[in-house]
Amino acid sequence: MQEDLLSGSPYDDDRPAPVGADAVLAGLDPEQRAVATALHGPVCVLAGAGTGKTRAITHRIAYGVRSGVYQPQQVLAVTFTARAAGEMRGRLRELGAEGVQARTFHSAALRQLQYFWPRAVGGEVPRLLERKVQLVAEAAGRCGLRVQRTELRDLTGEIEWAKVTQIVPDDYAAAVLKAGREAPRDPAEIARVYATYEQTKRDRAVIDFEDVLLLTAAILEDRPEIADRVRAQYRHFTVDEYQDVSPLQQRLLDQWTGPGASLCVVGDASQTIYSFTGATPDYLLNFRTRHPEATVVKLVRDYRSTPQVVHLANGLLAQARGQAAQHRLELVSQREAGPEPVYVEYADEPTEAESTAHRIKDLLALPAERGGCRASEIAVLFRTNGMSEVYEQALADLGISYQLKGAERFFERPEVREAGVLLKGAARAGSDPLTADAPDLASQVRAVLATRGFTATPPGGSGAVRERWESLAALVRLAEEFEAARHKAGESGDLSAYVAELDARAAAQHAPAVEGVTLASLHAAKGLEWDAVFLVGLTEGTMPIIYAKTDEQVEEERRLLYVGVTRARRNLSLSWSLARSPGGRASRKPTRFLDGLRPGSGAPGSRSGARGGRGGVEFGEGRPAARKARGPVKCRVCDRTLTEAVERKLRRCESCPSSMDEALFERLREWRAGQAKKQGAPAYVVFTDATLMAIAEDVPANERELAVISGVGAMKLDKYGAAVLSLCAGEEPEADSEEAPDDTSDESA
């Protein structure tokens, strides 16, 4: 008998091999099966968004356990969030692989640190600092610096980045310069705060979460006998989201695995979006170099998103550059066709928010068979958290419930902590007058929470009052689900059992689902998915963010948009506004990442073959009707007033760079030649070169967009519109009339 270092429970190495292993493989696709049956590492799984990576790796572990190749207590699966670890544990239990440890890096390291500290160092483990912000503020004050609240958050982030990249205070300033990192203030000042923060921790005998990894790795490095103990216990490792590991996490992983362990890593370099925290895809991309004998499996069958969503996602990555782009995975949707992504341009931000809220209300009103969604299956995603307020208000104005993702942890909210105390008191009382007349568990919970203002209907407006109500409503819904699950299992679900469930969820940070539209930043949306996703605020300066200066920073912004797109299962909307406020100057431009992908945007520079989804265009409220320009025409690139006829037709200076789809231009010329031959007329009678160039630059998606182009009059739109739009869509036009055009007056250049 031995003791599990993470669970503290004994296990038996001589237990009989389990049976029914082949049943684990049922239902896996060929690539997932290849992962599941590759039981001896090293194994590298390159898994695109929505390709079932969690399914593949949990079935691999379960197959190893049920075939007797793995002893469950010798398997350690690590990931990055408590939610992901909890999901993995649940799936492993369902697959008959109880006893496998699935934890976050920090959780696994903390348990080992607590276990080995007394014998390696002596005494009790230093107290863990749950939040370092207050101590960082104190350190800044001791350095004589006045720091605003937002600056304090940035300072804390810089210290965390330095620690996970293993940079000591004395080396911080030089490391920032070498990395091309934009520090939130003078690097020398940050280095002083960092050094003072570290000294303050030592003086008070406390450690932070980064110290947990550092100290565990140091103990394993300095005490070979302890490292041998860990390696004897854990022989099979799985690391999820491997593209997000930091140098410090990799250092600890190297100590865990040693030279003889079986290692399986899973990741997607195209979803690397946390480099600002120290994460790097280098370990994933160079895995085959470090392990030449590794088995590499690529998962590209996308089970999450429709072909239309996948087509746009692939188009985004087709334009990417850099090392991660060289390893991109081209997804293949396994779902039935759905609606095209919708691209919407609005006059200003309030109009964008209000219109988005109305479109969400329409989705909620539709039945499921007609494409409708529940509120919890809809998300509004934005680049920065500061963008949420206008959407909170717009949804609240329409009475639509919502939840903020990535805000304060659910079980740490004051109203949730207070509710927990009240529910525990009612459970202990047993015959509490509050719950005496309540016929079921959910009614008892409602009765208890009513003493703190909970009502059956939500309050009007947005803000703190609405958020408090949403938290309490989530506890009521959880009670309903808990009671139903207990009833289905033939068990009773009283208030005491429900309180125990809340405690277990709080310990695992497994928050209940809030039945409302999710509002989240793109970073907070990683790992989640919804039936309908609204990507909002997609303008230059926001996406990519204005402080993305280097090529790699811009590419990470592209990957962030890719993550947002791949959160959608079926409905996807991408929108932007031309001005910040009503009546403001319409100076904004949609993100460059959609060039060549959204209709009417032309082709992306040198990547004409990477054109993506041909989604329908929907113009938002407040946008003026399209019409031909009668006043000054400005260059679309440099904003100079154009005077030459050809330049006005192209809407750019001849010297400014063109976004023309050259392949489309040649197809248009070939089609025009055929038309001219049929009519026995010069080619320019059909369309001039300048008009064809303008079409190939704008790539119109419908008659309205085509009609805006100079040189396309009403008669030509009627005669040639369908054929031109077919060519722009990459299709062959239908056979058309051989009659000569009745009007050539709109071809003046």
UniProtKB/TrEMBL annotation:
Belongs to the helicase family. UvrD subfamily. It comes from Kitasatospora herbaricolor. Residues 307-570 form the UvrD-like helicase C-terminal domain. Residues 658-738 form the HRDC domain. It comes from the Bacteria. This is DNA 3'-5' helicase. Residues 610-619 have a biased composition (Gly residues). Keywords: ATP-binding, Helicase, Hydrolase, Isomerase, Nucleotide-binding.
